[in-house]
Amino acid sequence: MSAVAIQFTSSIGRAVTGLVSEAGALAIFFVSILTRLFSGIPQRRVLIPILHEVGVRSVPVVLVTGSFIGMVLAVQAHTQFKMMHMESRLGAVITMTLVSELGPVLAATMLAGRVGSAMAAELGTMKVTEQINAISALGSDPVRYLVVPRFIACVLLIPLLAAFGDAIGILSGWAFSTRVLGINSHQYWMYAIDFVTAWDIMAGLVKSIFFGCSIAIIACHRGFHCGSGAEGVGRAATESFVLSFIAILGLDFLLTILLNASYYLIWPGAVSL
Amino acid sequence: MTSGSSSPAIELHRISRRFGSQEVLRDLNITVQRGENLVLIGESGCGKSVTMKVMMQLLQATSGTVSWFGQKATQLSKKKWQATRLRFGYLFQGAALFDSLNIFENVAFGLRENKRLSNDEIRNIVLQRLDDVGLASDVAFRRPSELSGGMQKRAGLARALALNPEVMFYDEPTTGLDPVTSRRIDDLIDSIKYKHNVSSVIVTHDMKTVQRVADRVIMLAACRTLQPHDQQILFEGTVDELFSVTDPRIAEFVRGGALNASPETTSGQPSRAA
Question: Which of A25, A106, A130, B23 has CB atoms 3.0–4.6 Å from B223's, for a disulfide?
Answer without folding.
Answer: B23
